[in-house]
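[09:14] KT: can someone run the structure on this one? pasting the chain below
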Amino acid sequence: MLWITLAQMRWRQVTTQERPWKMKRCSSRNTSRGRKGSSETGLKLGTVPQEALRRTLFPLGELTKDFVKKIAAENRLHHVLQKKESMGICFIGKRNFENFILEYLQPRPGRFISIEDNKVLGTHKGWFLYTLGQRANIGGLREPWYVVDKDGAKGDVLVAPRTDHPALYRDLLRTGRVHWIAEEPPAALVRDKMMECHFRFRHQMALVPCVLTLNQDGTVWVTAVKAVRALAPGQFAVFYKGDECLGSGKILRLGPSAYTLQKGQRTSSVAKEGPSDSPGLGPAP
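[09:31] RB: done, structure tokens below
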């Protein structure tokens, strides 16, 4: 709302010839991901239906956030410039997230369990209070531990030491049925069933190169070129081709973590070496 107010204020101050930006109407089927510094635009537009986009105006379509702040400065809205960026859930405000959620959901106590040795490290009030990748505040432990998986049936939250632990990294996910802004999947994806593009699932994160594999039911497998930290079911993967936002899909399933794959490789290696290590047996052929 603030950005819209500032744009309207500036709009009234200048004539059509003096306007430094265009009032953009989205009449095309697709839309761009916006200027640098406005990655939230694609995350939101990725779920907007085409019928709505055809009737949508983007008064800030050619502006960066820095330019909008300049407008605020010109109009002496210094309280706007001093306001910190919102990084949390805006409607919660300064309230504690855990306390807010527990106003609506009953506590479901469970355990924090180490992903490395299955050791119980502590307890919590509900697995639904945590998301993958966040720090788990475990009483009595000085070193930080991070949430890498959750077991809703048992109520366990699996954690790992270090913010860069391989259990936090995955390179494969499956979405629900994708909402394509153009109403249809890209022609190249329909033709080849696979397509290179980019995606992101979090505000301000860098675009990640990936390969999409189209399924018959309209869902897609997303294979990232490089493992990504803290993918989580329930988030939306938004897809881009160049500057064009193609659409988005809700993340439903995740592939194995880098830690799981490493464990599998070690187990496989031990199994292969087993016969040669056994008494009385020579090297395997």
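[09:33] KT: thanks! Residues 10-29, 275-285 have pLDDT under 50 and may be disordered.
[09:34] RB: yep, looked fine to me
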